[in-house]
Write a structure and sequence with these properties.
The chain is an alpha/beta fold and about 350 residues long. It has 2 domains: about 190 residues, HUPs (Rossmann fold, 3-Layer(aba) Sandwich); about 130 residues, Rossmann fold (3-Layer(aba) Sandwich). The chain has 8 helices and 17 strands. The radius of gyration is 24 Å and the shape is globular.
């Protein structure tokens, strides 16, 4: 009989002394045409948690044109949880362009050395994050679904789907700073606004001239998608999957959504089959949603779909398979034929709403 092999001693991580001066959590405040993207305030709430875990300050980062509006964004950052805000105001930064924004963010990082930098996984955020990470030669974890601090080494532990969404992996950036991550809109809960909060604003010059920038803004064209479905910000969503059997049956999803004043969503197989437009896809390769009520009919609940909707306040699942994965995380489950249950729900809601309206 042999003795059991001794347990391996966990190697203690030691941060490169050159990086010890990097402190603080930063959130990039994305804005366009006078409006801050909601993902910035969602990240501010998550950044507050990370900063508190580390015992450091949380800062907002605002790049834009000089004026009261840009300063207002700094004040709003404080109201949503920031302790301070770094402001870079220059006429060159009026509209987003990769070159000046990358230089501005890179200069700020090199000057003030944050240990964590968070950006929204929007079109602008993804473009900027990749360029900044490349310029700084640091790590970037994209499309994260969860963020926390590894207590063993004070490093950011960023979780994201991988292998086509079939697995979740947690990535840690050790001897590189800042640790960067992007998070899609509606993944994190929005920070509560506290108008009594205030903080200091640190201004830093851009140090560029327009003639040195190759890209020019010739015209502003409004987002062609602004009249399309806004699933990410809907309070109620009714979604259908391949369990609806055929495209004609998907009308039952539309009928219930119309009665409830809801948006219509769908799983990836339904979109790939051409039953609905791509803008209505919920999941890892579609939209991430956070409604008050999510009704899923004929959706099995594979992880690719789950990561896009499991932050919903209430999930009602309808599926004729009692072993469908979705029942493992749904708030309420109905085992049965969606083609029978959906019309019954639609009629019940219609009568209830009519009674409420009649009562005044």
């Amino acid at each position: 009989m042999t003795d059991a092999a001794p347990a391996k001693k966990k190697r203690k991580f030691e941060l490169d002394p050159k990086l010890a001066g990097y402190k603080g959590v930063w959130v990039f405040v994305e804005h366009e045409r006078g409006q801050v993207h909601p993902v910035s305030w969602e990240l501010m709430g998550e950044g507050r948690k990370l900063a508190d875990m580390l015992g450091v300050e949380l800062a907002g980062v605002v790049l834009g044109e000089p004026g009261e509006q840009t300063r207002r964004f700094c004040n709003e950052a404080m109201c949503h949880g920031a302790d301070l805000c770094y402001l870079m105001a220059d006429d060159i930064l009026k509209d987003y362009r990769n070159e000046p924004f990358t230089k501005g963010m890179t200069d700020l990082v090199n000057a003030y050395q944050p240990e964590i930098l968070l950006l929204g996984a929007t079109t602008q955020g993804r473009d900027l994050a990749g360029s900044v990470a490349t310029t700084l030669q640091t790590g970037l974890t994209a499309d994260c679904t969860a963020l926390t601090i590894d207590p063993d080494n004070r490093s950011l532990a960023a979780t994201r789907p991988t292998f086509g969404g079939s697995l979740l992996c947690t990535i840690v950036t050790l001897n590189y700073r800042p640790q960067m991550a992007t998070v899609r809109p509606r993944v994190m809960a929005m920070a509560e606004r506290d108008a009594s909060r205030s903080g200091r604003v640190i201004e830093h010059p851009l140090g560029m001239v327009e003639s040195s920038i190759i890209t020019k803004v010739l015209e502003y064209i409004p987002d062609a998608m602004q009249d399309k479905p806004q699933l990410a910000f809907a309070d109620i969503i009714v979604s259908g999957g391949r369990g609806m059997k055929k495209p004609e049956n998907f009308q039952l999803i539309w009928d219930l959504a119309q009665v409830l004043g809801a948006e219509v969503g769908a799983s990836r197989p339904v979109v790939q089959a051409g039953w609905v437009d791509l803008e209505r896809q919920v999941g890892q390769s579609g939209k991430t949603v956070r409604p008050k009520l999510y009704i899923a009919a004929g959706i099995s609940g594979a992880i690719q779909h789950r990561v896009g909707m499991d932050a919903s306040d209430c999930i009602i699942a309808i599926n004729n398979d009692p072993n469908a994965p979705i029942f493992g995380f749904a708030t309420y489950g109905i085992v049965g034929n969606a083609m029978t249950i959906l019309p019954a729900l639609t009629e019940a809601f219609r009568q209830k709403l009519a009674a409420v309206k009649k009562a005044g």
